[in-house]
Write a structure and sequence with these properties.
alpha+beta; 2 helices; rod-shaped; two-stranded antiparallel sheet; single chain
Length: about 45
């Protein structure tokens, strides 16, 4: 009873392609539309 649903789920499962970005996310890095946003120091007068 379980074999067919599990087999079907495996066929649709996506591979994680951004595993190397996990440490950045955990450290608090900001991403916008999937792109890393670099923090810039701007002097506001």
């Amino acid at each position: 009873m379980v074999f067919k649903p599990v087999e079907s789920a495996q066929a649709r499962r996506r591979a994680i392609t951004g595993a190397h970005l996990v440490p950045l996310v955990r450290s608090g890095a900001q991403f916008e539309n999937g792109v890393l946003v670099e923090r810039s120091e701007v002097d506001v007068a």
